[in-house]
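Reviewers of the previous submission asked for a worked example of the structure-prediction workflow described in the proposal, so we include one complete record here. The input consisted solely of the amino acid sequence. No template or homolog information was supplied to the procedure at any stage.
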Amino acid sequence: MIPVSEEVALLLTECRHELTSILQSKFGCTFVCHNVENGSPSKSRGAEMRPDVRFRVKLPKGLKISVWKDDLTTHRVDAVVNAANGDLIHGAGLASALSKAGGKEIEEECKRIIRKISRLPTGKAVVTTAGLLPCKKVIHAVGPELPEGASHKDVEEAGVLLREAIFNILAKVEEERLQSVAIPAISSGLFHFPLKRCADIIVQTLKEYHDKKDRTHIIIIISIQFFCRALFLER
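From that input alone, the workflow returned the following structure tokens.
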């Protein structure tokens, strides 16, 4: 057992799903945080996880984008995006967290979709119920997967598919008449897409898509550092 500070404990619990997946795949083990209640350090220690907005910007034509540090399973928004795999099997990372929090209804609907289409191609997206999640819909999008240490050429080729995935997410938002959507850094975790380039592509695609539209949406991105930089450059 390794004692950690309250600040470190909070950081570990925020990233617990991704950290568990990485530890299991790399070393065949997991981790447990003690003195933690409901995913945050126990109230007896005075810590509490709260949604934290880090950046807001209003782009031309009224598009509002904000960058948050928060938990997608509890964030209040019309739709959340799940970084899915082509089989819509939510076994690790964000997909697992959303599936568990949303209940069996999401999993069962995904199974019905796969029975019809066999597999969701990279770059595509589908919409399901949100189950028990505090949103209206879940948009499952398949981003490109890269090997660790991928070359610049491989990253740029995969970036075309990431751009397609973001475009299809926004198309689903419009089709479903949703006013806000929370988008994580798709492909940047277990799929090894470089986070900085991921943020740049997502922000550029948001702007390009909405430059052609008259409707105003509020886009909420769940991440911090590189998204803030990318948004600042697009202002």
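Confidence is low (pLDDT under 50) at residues 37-49, 224-228. We consider this example representative of the routine output the project will generate in years two and three.
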